[in-house]
User: Fold this.
Amino acid sequence: MRRKKQRVARLDEVQITREGDAAVITFLDDSGPTTRLSIGPKMREMSDAEVLEEYNECVMAQEFLAASCRHVAVEIPPGQPQLEYFASGRQWAPRGDVLRCVVHDCGPDPDRQAVIEIDDQELSIEEFGRMLTAYAGWGMRICFVPDNQLEDKPEIEVREPDDEADYGWDWDE
Assistant:
């Protein structure tokens, strides 16, 4: 299930309940996530409209921050471990933002699933998926390259493939 993004709301779109010094903002049409906003003691004197204004200001500040940040993806240098294992969560986590990996086929079984090899660690699809939760809420681009070019930055063209046989290989003729 895809996580809903917070968004600016109108008073007629939400229900606001109070729990101590926090407001719980629930979208009536389920178009946004239910959010618990800690405001503090001043909330006792605030109207629902003022609580919603505070919520909307938080959402707009987050959107501004996200839009103004320039993300630089960190790639772990070749030869250094790209993953670390967290025993308490029983899962692997990426050490950087870029993963060099190889997809393996698990044999002739018709119900087979891929295995993803990162460094010398083989991850099942389930383990790989669990690892991706470290980036929940982020986007992801996957670029497939020959396994001997994992450390090279590939040239990328944005276009429709010429035909079904076009997989991006540029054969010298």
The two ends are 47 Å apart (CA to CA). The chain has two domains: 11-68, 83-149. The chain has a mean pLDDT of 89.
